[in-house]
Amino acid sequence: MSPVLFGILAALLIASALGVVLSASPIRSALSLVLTLFFIAVQFLFLDAQLVAALQVVVYAGAIMVLFLFVIMLLNLQEEPQAIARLGQRAAAVFLGSLFLLAAVHFLAKPGIGAGTGMAGAVPATFGSTELLAETLFTRFLFAFEITSVLLLVAVIGAVVLAKKTLT
Amino acid sequence: MTVVPINWYLILGAVLFTIGVIGVLVRRNVIVIFMSIELMLNAVNLVFVALSRQLHVMDGQVVVFFVMTVAAAEAAVGLAIIISTFRNRETVNADELNLLRW
Amino acid sequence: MHAAAATHVSYLWLIPALPALGVLFNIFLGPRLGKGAVSVVAPGVVGGAFIVGCYAFMQLHDGGLVQNVYPWIHAGTLQVDVNFRIDALSAVMVLIVSGVGFLIHVYSVGYMAEDPSFVRYFVYLNLFTFAMLTLVLADNLPLLFVGWEGVGLCSYLLIGFWYDKEANASAGKKAFVVNRIGDAAFLLGMFLLFWNLGTGAHGLSFGEIAAHAKKIPIDTVTTITLLLFIGATGKSAQLPLYVWLPDAMAGPTPVSALIHAATMVTAGIYMIARLNFLFILAPTTLAVVATVGALTAAFAATIGVLQTDIKKVLAYSTVSQLGYMFLAVGVGAFGAGVFHLMTHAFFKGLLFLGSGSVIHGMSGEQDMRKMGGLRTRMPITFATFFVGTWAISGLPGFAGFFSKDAILAEAFGSPNGSVWLWALGVASAGLTSFYMFRLLFLTFFGDCRADEHTQHHLHESPPSMTMPLIVLAILSVVGGYVGLPEHWLWGNRFFVFLEPVFGAPAKEAVHLSAATEYALMGTSVLVALIGLGVAYVFYIARPELPESLAKRLPGAYDLIFNKYYVDEVYDFVFVRPTVAISTWLWRVVDAGMIDGLVNGTAEAVGANSGLWRRLQTGNVQHYALSMLLGALAILGYYAWR
Prior knowledge:
The complex is a heterotrimer of chains A (168), B (102) and C (641).
Chain A: H1 3-22, H2 26-46, H3 50-74, H4 87-108, H5 130-139, H6 142-163
Chain B: H1 6-26, H2 30-55, H3 59-89
Chain C: E1 7-8, H1 14-59, E2 65-75, E3 78-86, H2 88-111, H3 118-137, H4 141-159, H5 166-196, H6 206-212, H7 218-235, H8 244-247, H9 253-262, H10 267-274, H11 276-279, H12 283-304, H13 310-330, H14 334-361, H15 374-377, H16 379-392, H17 399-413, H18 419-444, H19 452-457, H20 463-478, H21 493-502, H22 504-507, H23 514-541, H24 545-552, H25 554-561, H26 566-612, H27 620-640
Helix pairs in contact in C: 1-2, 1-3, 2-3, 2-9, 2-14, 2-20, 3-4, 4-5, 5-7, 7-10, 7-12, 9-14, 10-14, 12-13, 12-18, 13-14, 13-17, 13-18, 14-16, 14-17, 14-20, 14-21, 16-18, 16-20, 17-18, 17-23, 18-23
């Protein structure tokens, strides 16, 4: 991918992320987040992660964000006048956030991260495909996979119990 | 075609992460805070996939797989909590949910 | 000291164990099985101890019998075991304690029959017997001290037996506190002795002390023995720590008989006799002992002359007689001291039990001014009481005559004695005879001065009470014949018996000429008869004399009648300052400072946390902010490295 393309995609990503954080209405924030997820899926495609990109769109944008939207609409949330916190808190957050970014960039801008040929090097054709992902998942990450299924069961039970209407 | 160095992806991830952090700290609506958290998770996902491509191994993508799964579970439970909180307290304003105050 | 080796036996532990068993039985099964069972078991175990003691007595030989019961303290150089020893001295003590103890237990069954706390009484009495037997059987000083403390405890428990009356509880407390003062000195003496016995492991057993005592410098020995003697003055009620004994009469009369006449108060004498080899090395201490003993004998006798409570007279008499025993050991006549201890146990026990019988018959009256004429109404009590009075006065033929005579002869003739000590002894003998016959005449002769109701209920005591009286009366008569003066019949078999323990001193270094001895004997008999005569005049022939005499010497009368105001002085000098200091310590130090410190610490912690809990705002975003701060700190640390 050319740097120019990357730059355009990055700008769009940052814009939609800012949209999530800065929108007054929760619906707008949710929709901005969906947009962000799409752009990240595109990034995944450019990074030879096809299955993950598909999953991103189907699971994340398709299911989780829909859940968010359902809840927003269920609670009938409106635009709030005082959507953003007090000035002091705002200033502190922005200041510390910038510090954090500077520190992160300080570490991340160093050359030589990762061994081997890196981004320039070619990857096997199956890289990022379902088969290869499945192979890695079911061999070296089998235990985590099984545990995650238990986690999902717990989450489902928890969500059902918590959201149930209490008998009055 | 010249290649995009890995650092650019990492810095992009950091920027998105920072935006998410500021969103968590600044917004009052609990659901928007939650969405900012999702944004942070996605930033991390991006970093994982980029490094996976850099190092030529699938491990990063597998981790992203798990992150997505956990994010789904977390979203389900978190939203259920928000719903029951709203039922009890009639508000989703983070400033008003301060029962653990001294 | 003993050339012969001791035999190891395995039954000595039974002697204290039987009364201990009695304690357990009375505590746990007594309330359930009732008075009948307790009144059999409690005297029974003491009787059992007596039988074992007799058996040991018959097996006794020069070297003594020992038993190692179990190892007790093994700490560095201190190696103390629970060891029991029967030699001539402890055999005598065991027989006295268990024998007289048995009689008093039987007597108590009758005396305490109506009392609601019957079982508790016998628990304490058995416990006392256990402790006393441990004391006399102990083969080392720490074990003796265990028994010493045990009898002190039981004395407190039994004096304050009827504790719902404040006066009784106070008397118990007084006894315990005064005893404690003596015990503190005793402990210091024991520590000093242990410290000075040299290196190497030892456990203050009497054999070890005897072997090594000569190595200790004489000043240290004097200090040690003086401290031990102070402990003895506390336990055996000598000047200045005698004040608890008259108050101790608040307890039941059999208790007074057993503890404050026959056994516990003799523990001091026993201890000095036991450690005779140590005391001999410190002539200064012995002189102090003799002087204190003689002074106490005279002092207490003067007080006894004017007391009106029958038990108080006997209490002061006990203090006085104990003075005699200390006089004896003080001049080095250990055998004579123990001899008098034995005879005193017989006749003083008898006198106390007799007074108990009188009190019982008089429905609780103890004031002699309200008695009189009981001779005809309580014949057995009168007869036995008369025997006891004759014996204690040292009149010829009965036990007291021989033992008192032995002491006075030693006081006169021994190199450590002096004419003055002898004179004090004779004066006390005269006073003893006087106040004892005064007691006898006031109580049993003349017209009965009690009121109608009491006279109506007046009766002789039941056999459970009169039988022990008779037995003790017989002993008061024959008990002295084991210790006849040297040239009479079989001589002093008692001293011969005690030779293995006391060595030459038992036979006394003094050999008075027969003429001197008869002269001394005659003097003391004469003085005693004068005492009897004066008592007769004052209380039978011319009963108005005592009052007119009192009116003519009001100052002296008041002083003596109020026991020389000793208790009042002690209260002013010692008790009040101590109470004041204690109150100050309580209010200022304990409640103010220590509580203040503790509570203050708690308050400080509370205040501090009150400050810090403001961090918990309840706002989740604040918490997220602090997490970010933490992450920044870590990043910063790595960035700066």
